[in-house]
Amino acid sequence: MDFNNINILSLAYLGDAVYELEIRKYFINMGIQKVNVLQKKALNYVSAKNQCKHINYLIDNSLLEQSELDVVKRGRNAKVISHPKNTDIVTYKWATSLECLFGFLYIKNDIKRIKKLIEIIMEVENQ
Hints:
Elements: H1 8-29, H2 35-46, H3 48-60, H4 66-77, H5 89-107, H6 111-125
Helix pairs in contact: 1-2, 1-5, 3-5, 4-5
């Protein structure tokens, strides 16, 4: 499959769901059972601000493969029509690039890599 022909914002749309699902699974697997606690914890990871922080950590520490970096760059440079009022456009574009990465990995069916990146993100947040 030629991933360059997939609309990058479609990858972000898919990746948003994949990323949030993996975050939610992580906390449920930790044994957290109260939905309001799950929601509060998940929000700390799925906000644009934190997604921006996570993608920059992965890049700054050379934890992404070249094909992943290519997708991230496409996602960061994608033309977006609007963004949330509580987030500046730069942060929003970086968050979108993280979502593109997870959408790309999901389309590739690289579940092992998705889990590894989630593991890295969780380790960083828990330091």
